[in-house]
Structures are given as C-alpha cells and as structure tokens.
Amino acid sequence: MKTGPRQGRCVVIVVGESSGDLHAANLVRSMKKKDPTLFFCGIGGHAMQEAGVRILMDAGAVTAVGVTESLAKLPVILKAMALVKRLLKTLKPELVILVDFPDFNLRVAPTAKKLGIPVLYYISPQLWAWRPGRAARLKHLVDHMAVILPFEADFYKEYDIPVTFVGHPLLDGKVDLMKRPGMGKDAREGVVGLLPGSREREVERHLPLMLEAARILKAGHPDLKFVVSVANTVKHATVEAILMRFGSDIPAEISGARGQDLFRQVSLVMAKSGTVTLEAALFGVPCVILYRVSPVSYWVGKTLIKVPYIGLANLIAQKEVQPELIQNEATPQALARACHRLLTDKDRMDQVHKEYDRVRSLLGGKGASDQTAKIASRLMEKTQ
C-alpha cells in the first residue's frame, strides 16, 4: 500500500460526511499548528486533502443513507474497511481519529484497539438518538470522545466513557454570528434557499418536493425567487435535469454557495435534515426541515429512533424551533404552508430568533478544533 513519504508521527483519520470532512480539515490544521511534522492519511474529502491529508479513498464513495443504499454500496464499503484495517497494521500510527460515520467507524475502532493504537472519536455518532445500547461498547473501543453538542457529554458520562464537550466547530467561523447575515441589510429580500442534500439520491428525492412547494409559494408571493444550493458532491447536471422538468415558471437559479455565503443571500431556507439546519439557526435564517428515505429505511429508522426531533437545533432547544416534515408529511403543500407562515407571521419570526439565540448560547464558544487538537496531543503523548 502506497501512502507516500511519512514525516514524523502518523495519524490515521476516517471521515464519511461532507460536513465531517470540513471539521476534520480544521482539526488537522489545529494539530499541525502544534506539530508541523505530523503525517495524516485516511478516508476523507476535498477539504481534508487541502489541509494536507493524504486521501486513500474518497469519503463519498463509501457513505450511504438508509438500508437500500447501504446494500448497493456494500462491495465498496467492504473494500474501504479492508483498506483501513490494512493501513493500521502497516503504518502503526500514533493515533486514530474517527469522525462521526458510526456504521463504518465503530468497525474500525476494534482493530485499532487490538493493535494498541489510541482512538479519538470526534463528533459523536448519534447513538443517543437511535442506538443507545451500543454506547456501552464504546468504553472498550474509544480512548476519548470529543463531542460537539451540549447534551452528549452527560450521555457518555452515564456509560463511564472519557468525554469532553469541545463546543461546535461551526462557531469557529470568521463571521460574527450575532449579526445574522441572512436577515441583515445585505440580504436579498424575498429569496428562498433550497438545500436538497449532499448526495445524488437525496437531491433526486427532495428537490422535486421543494420545487413543487416553490410553485405553490410563487402563486401567493409573486416576487419570491429561489436559489438551489448544490453541494460539491452533487453533479450540476442532476440538478439541471430536475429544474428542466419544472420549466421556467419557477425562477430557481443554481448556486454553489454554502454556509455563510448562502445564508447572506436568503431570508428563508427549505433544507434536508442535517448539519446545514443547525447552520441556519446559527446564522439566524428561518428553516423548514424535510426528510424522506426509502420506505424500508423509514420503517427501520422509526423502530430505532429514540428522540422527539431530527433537527439539531430542535434537539438542543428541546422544542420545535424549525418545523419538521418527515416522510409522508413532507408534501409540497405542507412545505409551502410552513414557509408561508415564516414569511408572513412576524410574531412567529421573533420567537424563532429568540430560540436561535438560546441555541447559540448553549453551544458554547469558539475553539472546538483547538480543544480537540489538545486532546489528540495528550493521547499521542501516552504512546511515546
């Protein structure tokens, strides 16, 4: 296995989601500030590669949503698993960093532990949501959890797992979040952002619903415009083909803008459930959450999920700050109604902003990457 020249101590890092790729890249930069000789390699994406990680397999190739997509990708997932295990045995790194991606990473951890390699888990798998029983296993698989949601620390302490709440890495951005760029004077009034997901299948499943809701909204709000945010993991051709089916009566333009760049442009978003919904809360932009999966995946998930909400801001606030429309509830009519209320009900909008302020305060301050880098350094010191 060729990994390139090794410089100094080695860290293997494994990431699945695109949001995890970004947060992992920032962690790598923080660790390199402390020790520029560190050599990183593993599974990840473009952001990690730019941070200097040698990517041995692209994260997008092994990430799947739901039962049906996981089965379709099983050969690639098994190949990636074999690659990582072989990498650990060959390189004997000083540390393994696992970032979210539980169905894969919880199978990597046992190999690392058998080889005596410390394991740092950054960005907790959401076991508290749907597999709390599996948390007991982590005590024997993970040396430390660096968690980014305030209630996660208490959850893992119940299982006697070493854990630190490091704050949320989204707070490490350069923008003053309290300025609410999405609602300020620079916002394009009457622009609704459509965020259908970061995978092809998610876009194919969610974007038509959003566009049909946009058609309904347009009838009552003729001046509204719509922007479709396309993740770098999604082909523009996929989005263009869906837009063509709806014709020119929906003035939706494609945008590669994400994060703060997107939220500066819009006054409201419809978004597939995920980290981006919490970003909307941090930047003060009202959000309607939707989520659809295959019927089989939905049935399995419904039997396992143990929390009342799927939106992270809602979980932190312990109330529905952002409307959630899941599976059969996620209809164009319901989406349009939820958006219409946020666009026209000032009292509701004021309440949303008050709850957003509370969510931000509960997430702590900046410095998640630097705090996690300190934990990583301590774990590596124990191996010397």
Calculate Rg over CA atoms: 21 Å
CATH level-two architecture of the largest domain? 3-Layer(aba) Sandwich
- Portion in beta strands: 15-25%
The amount of helix comes to 40-55%
Which labels suit this protein?
6-stranded parallel sheet; Rossmann fold; globular; 384 residues; alpha/beta; 13 strands; 2 domains
Spell out the blueprint of helices and strands.
Blueprint: E1 10-15, H1 18-34, E2 39-44, H2 46-50, E3 54-58, H3 59-62, H4 66-72, H5 74-91, E4 95-99, H6 102-114, E5 119-122, H7 127-130, H8 135-138, E6 144-147, H9 152-157, E7 163-165, E8 191-195, H10 200-220, E9 225-229, H11 236-246, E10 252-255, H12 260-263, E11 268-272, H13 275-282, E12 287-291, H14 295-304, H15 312-317, E13 324-326, H16 332-344, H17 346-362, H18 368-381
Parallel strand pairs: 1-2, 1-4, 2-3, 4-5, 5-6, 6-7, 8-9, 8-11, 9-10, 11-12, 12-13
Helix pairs in contact: 1-18, 5-6, 10-11, 10-16
Characterise the protein shown here.
Helix 5 (about 75-90) packs parallel to helix 6 (about 100-115), helix 10 packs parallel to helix 11 and helix 10 packs across helix 16. The protein folds into two domains: about 10-175 and about 365-380, Glycogen Phosphorylase B (Rossmann fold); about 175-360, 3-Layer(aba) Sandwich (Rossmann fold), CATH 3.40.50.2000. It has 18 helices and 13 strands. The protein has helices at about 20-35, 45-50, 60, 65-70, 75-90, 100-115, 125-130, 135-140, 150-155, 200-220, 235-245, 260-265, 275-280, 295-305, 310-315, 330-345, 345-360, 370-380; strands spanning about 10-15, 40-45, 55-60, 95-100, 120, 145, 165, 190-195, 225-230, 250-255, 270, 285-290, 325. It has about 375 residues and is α/β, with parallel strands linked by helices.
